[in-house]
Design goal:
Blueprint (H helix, E strand, L loop, with lengths): L5 H8 L8 E5 H14 L5 E5 L6 H9 L3 E4 L2 H9 L7 E3 L6 H9 L4 E4 L2 H10 L4 E5 L16 H13 L3 E6 L11 H18 L8 E3 L15 H15 L6 E4 L3 H4 L3 E13 L2 E6 L18 E4 L8 E7 L15 E4 L7 E5 L20 E5 L7
Bound molecules: pyridoxal-5'-phosphate.
Pyridoxal-5'-phosphate binds next to helix 10.
């Protein structure tokens, strides 16, 4: 059963009339994850939701109303969060690849905090957002995540701080991303230790004062097939690492969860197009795949769970490969040990793929092989946050 709410499961099992493929997003589950994470950090860390994970307008409004800030990657996302009611002073523009026009647009709309990891970006910021606050993004190359994340080296960060000061920007702090679906909470303490050394060096050069912004990025996990520690283990490890590494605590410490807030809030319903045998293997071809249903995280090793609807849990199963509808070798769900589906699964039967609340609706390809992007249905919040 999907890790989301009973109401999500009820929706999935009572919507046989809807044409497949489609996905469902239960905003209550995202609000619950937000509440759990705030509680687990003892209120010490402020949350900025990474909008790229799922930009549903109802979700953005509900999170903004719950007091969650937002991390945006483009003017398009900034427009979405502002119209969802999130004030600009709770927005971080944490994508360091921007044109001067994009920077100026964000600055004119009230965004004051921008990250940067190159001299070119610092200079673009100085031109497009004079006097803005810069948060320097450090690379993190530790293991445990789907991919290492970019950023500058510690030495470059110290040089960028000096450059920023020379161009009248405020050097507000540091940020990094330890990699999405990070299985090892111990990566944050490693990143914090490096960050503390870098900040001390920046201060020693007179380029900044007290650490005002420490942004610990995303990386907290959703509940996929490969198990990860509970969210509260991450929250405790991260909060202790900040306290231990930074004797003078940062004024604002942020986390930018995307996946951890919304992955478990979503599931996808798909129909079996065909079951075929090739080279001694059984392939189940679905009408939802990596491209039209945005399941492309599978390429980086995310393993979605797949369950047959309307088949008894006790039905005999056999190992299968699961493919999407396009004529493309990559359109196949990655899996460590094989998927198992009922032996009598046939054309027209429905399956649920989960959890798909993160990076699916926003990743769905527009028209690859002529398949339109998946439709996302939203279950609105039952109770609006206070
Ligand atoms: C700057 C930034 N912050 C936060 C996130 C969210 O990451 P996650 O979904 O792993 O929490 C991303 C995702 O790529 C990102 O680029």
């Amino acid at each position: 059963m999907p890790p989301g709410s009973a109401r999500l499961w009820r929706f999935l099992t009572t919507t046989q009339h809807l044409p497949t493929p489609y996905s469902v997003l239960d905003i209550d589950t995202a609000l619950l994850r937000h509440k759990q994470l705030v509680a687990a950090t003892g209120g010490q860390l402020e949350l900025l939701y990474a909008v790229k994970a799922n930009a549903d307008p109802g979700l953005l409004s509900a999170l903004a109303q719950a007091g969650c800030g937002m991390d945006v990657a483009s003017p398009g996302e900034l427009r979405q969060v502002l119209s969802a009611g999130c004030p600009a002073d709770r927005v971080s523009y944490s994508n360091p690849f921007r044109s001067r026009e994009e920077i100026a647009f964000a600055h004119e709309n009230g965004v004051r905090v921008f990250c940067a990891d190159s001299p070119e970006e610092v200079l673009r910021l100085a031109a497009g957002a004079p006097g803005a606050s810069v948060v320097l993004r450090l690379a993190h190359t530790g293991p445990g995540a789907m991919s290492p994340r970019f950023g500058c080296s510690p030495r470059e960060a110290v040089e960028l701080a000096a450059l920023a000061v020379m161009h009248h920007l405020e050097v507000a702090g540091l940020c990094w991303h330890v990699g999405t679906q990070q299985k090892d909470p111990g990566q944050w303490p490693l990143a914090c230790a490096t960050g503390a050394r870098v900040w001390a060096a920046i201060r020693a050069r007179g380029a900044a004062g007290r650490l005002r912004v420490l942004n610990l990025g995303g990386g907290l996990p959703g509940t996929y097939r490969v198990p990860t520690p509970p969210l509260r283990a991450y929250a405790c490890t991260i909060a202790s690492a900040v306290a231990e590494c930074f004797a003078d605590p940062p004024v604002h410490t942020f986390l930018e969860p995307g996946r951890a807030l919304v992955a478990d809030a979503g599931a996808t319903v798909s129909s079996v197009k065909a079951v075929v045998r090739r080279n001694g293997r059984i392939y189940v071809i679905l009408d939802a795949g990596l491209w039209n249903a945005g399941l492309a995280d599978s390429l980086y090793g995310i393993e979605y769970a797949v369950t047959a609807l309307d088949h008894s849990l006790a039905a005999p199963t056999h190992p299968v490969m699961i493919c999407g509808p396009t004529c493309d070798t990559l359109d196949e769900l990655s899996v460590g040990d094989a998927y198992r589906l009922p032996v009598d699964l046939a054309t027209g039967d429905r399956v649920v793929i989960w959890p798909t609340g993160a990076y699916c609706a926003t990743n769905a390809a527009v028209n690859f092989n002529g398949y339109p992007p998946i439709t996302q249905h939203t279950l609105p919040p039952t109770r609006l946050p206070p």
